[in-house]
Each structure stands twice: as structure tokens, then as C-alpha cells.
Amino acid sequence: MTEAPAAPVPDPRREALRGHVAMLAFSALVAGSFSLGALVANLIDPVSVTAVRFLWAAAVLAVFAALLANRRDGGARGFRAADFRAPWRFVLLGALFAGYFVLMFEGLKTADPVSAGAVFTLTPLMTAGFAWVWLGQRLDGWVAGALAIGAAGAVWVIFRADWQALLGFQVGRGEAIYFVGCILHAAFTPLLRRFNRGEPALVATALVMGAGCVLLFALGWQGLRATDWAALPALVWLTMAYLAIFASALTFFLLQYAAQRLPSSKVMAYTYLTPAWIVLWELGLGHGVPGMLLLPGIALIVLALVMLLRRD
């Protein structure tokens, strides 16, 4: 009786390259949500657009979770009753995640997309702070230095290279609103890990999106009913579809794919590409380039990216 041939051993370098390609796509898709979101932020209520986004994304993720995620117990598929233990976890996480996106859209009513992207690059530094408090995770000096450099570049862009605005803390209203949202996002990430009780990542995210969807529909029902959905421009529908499918479901898949092939610090590093991708999105949409004075700040953000990529 002949033995079955052994499964081929994956090439680590090739797998790492695939992880980097996945994160490049991830960061580009995330950046698109800033440029497209700014176009429609004043055309629809932020709670309403986020509710629809969560509804579509939760449906897509639930289908994938049922088909692919839960290959436990001899290959059984679908959700398990145990995945629904302590539902308050998903309600809290859904509230944080939904709050982030609502405040993002509210901020994009007035914030420049590039500046908002720079605010987003502050998230890893804040996440590290929450992870230290809640998970006991500590940063080494190299990663801490990279995060500090990235934060300095973000501050440069946010205050538009105006030292007087920085000293007087004259931050734009939209950027300030979105910064609060980024605090919620930074808190969400370590809590997602702390509250996990063995659920597959795809299952957990589908439940978080579902809980957030229920909360948004409950809290924003009046705005949802008052919205004339039939009269919304096609751009709004296209943006909502992009946010739900590409900037939610697909980016989640890419993030999980890359996390299995790259160290966490390298996965986190691609957050710093967001402002650069937004610049390209703005060029593609015909909105021009940011002022030359912002380029040093973007350069510092890219330097932080390079430092984190070289860390491991």
C-alpha cells in the first residue's frame, strides 16, 4: 500500500510576500473610505449610512463565517451555540465600532480626507496604550519610537504645518470629532482580544457587526425613516456598497490573511500608508494634491512605516 504524498511545505518568503500584498490592498481600500466618505458625508445622516453599511457587512460576513470560519468539531461549519455566550461582549464591541464609523462620517463633513487619514495614524499609538492597560502588553523601544515618529508626522499634517495652530491647539472641528472616533477604535482592538472566548475571528466580527447594526437601527430609527432613500444620488449608494463590501468585509479578510503570514508589528505598520493612499485617491478623483508644507509630515509617517516593517 503506497503512502499518500506529503503536502508541499509553503515557502516562508513567498507567504510573507503574499501577506505584504494583502496589506497593501488593505490600506488602499481603507483609504478609499476617506475620500469617498467625504464626498457623501453631507448627503446622508452619518447614523443612517453606518447602519446600512453594518447591515450589508454583517450579512456578507455571516455568510462567509457560516461557510468557512468554523471548521471545528471534525469539520463542522456554521455558528455554534457557544459562540453566542455573553452577548453583552458583542453589544459593547459593536457600540465602539459603530461609534467610530459614525464619528468618522460626522468628521468628514468638514475635515480634509488627508488630515483625517493622518488622525487615523494615531490609532496604533493609542491602541498600544489601551493594550498596556488591559492586556499588559508592552512595547519595545524600537516600536515605541516608530509610533512616536508616526504620531509626530500625523500631528504635522493635522495642524497643516502651522506651529501657531499647534501651540494654540487650533484643530479643525472635523478632525477633533474623528479623533474621538479613533479613541473608540483604539479601545475596540484590545477589547476584541480580551473578550474572545474561542470564537473564530470571522464569527466574532460578524457578531460584532450584527450587534452594531441592531444598535444603530434602534438609536437611529427616526433618521432612517426620515431619509428619502429613493432620492439619494447614485454616488451615495455606490459609496455605501464600497464601504460594506470592500472597506469592511474584504478588508477584514485581507487583514486576517496577512496576520497569518506576517508579525503583528508589520501588519500594524500598514496603517501608516493610509495618508499616502488618500493622496492618490484624491488625485484619481480630481481633487488635486495637498499643500507642499504637508509633505514633511507624510514623510515622517512613511518613515514610521519603514521602521515597523524592518522591526522583525
Describe this structure in words.
The protein has 312 residues and is mainly α. It has one domain. The longest helix has 29 residues, at 12-40. The protein is globular and about 50 Å long. 71% of the residues lie in helices and 0% in strands.
Portion in helices: over 70%
Number of H- or I-type helical stretches: 14
Strand content: under 5%
Low-confidence stretches: 72-76
> How far apart lie the N and C ends?
45 Å
Rg from Cα: 20 Å
* Largest sheet properties: none
Overall strand count: 0
SS class: mainly alpha
Count of folded domains: 1
Key features?
312 residues; mainly alpha; 71% helix; single chain
Question: Nutshell version of this structure?
Answer:
The chain is mainly alpha-helical. 71% of the residues lie in helices and 0% in strands.
